[in-house]
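Colleagues,

For the teaching module next term, I've prepared a clean inverse folding example: a structure given as tokens, and then the sequence designed for it. I'd like students to try predicting residues themselves before seeing the answer, so please don't circulate the second half yet.
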């Protein structure tokens, strides 16, 4: 079992805002097309949860950055680019979450009232901005690994401990 480190924690939880923003945007678009109150409630609830999930993801990312100390095997500037985008994403999703939470609360307390156009418009704009922002930040996060210089090497560097470049040898077990 891997040790629970900040980089590992960040990798475990960073997909929550991505999935929640995607589902929230799909629900908003569905609510616009189908004019269903239930879809608006689902969209606002999902975007509210995304707003709650974004800070732990951002915090764990900052801690992971400090724990890694810009290692040689990650392209220079990749973590900083991701972190800069993550700061903007944090603000957008927090604002979207607050707007969605208010809209959700208001809609639940005024069941006979149609959700006001201004709330629906703000939720739509927030969902679009949040999805765009979290998508870009995720793209840059993927580049941290996918653009790593070590992946361009034809063979693993000499001197790496077992289990890093190849599976560790298990006594009494033959590998294929």
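(Answer key — instructors only)
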């Amino acid at each position: 079992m891997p040790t629970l480190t900040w980089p590992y924690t960040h990798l475990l939880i960073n997909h929550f805002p991505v999935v929640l923003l995607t589902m929230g945007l799909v629900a908003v678009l569905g609510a616009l097309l189908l004019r269903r109150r239930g879809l608006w409630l689902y969209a606002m609830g999902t975007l509210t949860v995304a707003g709650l999930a974004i800070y732990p993801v951002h915090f764990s990312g900052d801690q992971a950055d400090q724990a890694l100390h810009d290692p040689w095997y990650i392209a220079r500037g990749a973590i900083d680019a991701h972190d800069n985008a993550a700061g903007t994403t944090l603000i957008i999703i927090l604002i979207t979450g607050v707007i969605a939470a208010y809209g959700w609360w208001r809609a639940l307390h005024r069941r006979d009232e149609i959700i006001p156009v201004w709330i629906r418009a703000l939720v739509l704009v927030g969902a679009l901005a949040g999805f765009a922002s979290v998508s870009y930040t995720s793209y840059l996060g993927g580049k941290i690994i996918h653009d790593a210089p070590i992946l361009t090497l034809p063979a693993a560097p000499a001197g790496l401990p077992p289990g890093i470049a190849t599976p560790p040898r298990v006594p009494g077990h033959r590998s294929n």
